[in-house]
Amino acid sequence: xxxxxxxxxxxxxxxxxxxxxxxxxxxxxxxxxxxxxxxxxxxxxxxxxxxxxxxxxxxxxxxxxxxxxxxxxxxxxxxxxxxxxxxxxxxxxxxxxxxxxxxxxxxxxxxxxxxxxxxxxxxxxxxxxxxxxxxxxxxxxxxxxxxxx
Length: 149
What we know:
0% strand; 8 helices; 149 residues; elongated; mainly alpha
């Protein structure tokens, strides 16, 4: 599997980064590191991984946005008062938590909640893209520095 993924390079990285940013429990950092060690262009590797991961997060956001009523009422069992309170609180402070959307386990649900609570698309995009770019840039930098030792 490793050989197959690395042989398709940027396409595999995009697909794996996309899937890793949905509610599917995958990781894409290992392929990013493998590609950097195989001397792929670091800027392109980071860009492809970031865009794929951001678009995967947009998928979770869209599910929350368009399936929000079902999720709030049927899954989370939130009444109207609880929903309004959550929207006010999240709108004031919580949307900054989207900067942490790169974290394993909690990051993907944060994007879903961003959609359910209707965080604006521009704000969502800015926060999520920035967090994911910072994560992949840090992994790339650490990989390159570690490989040069």
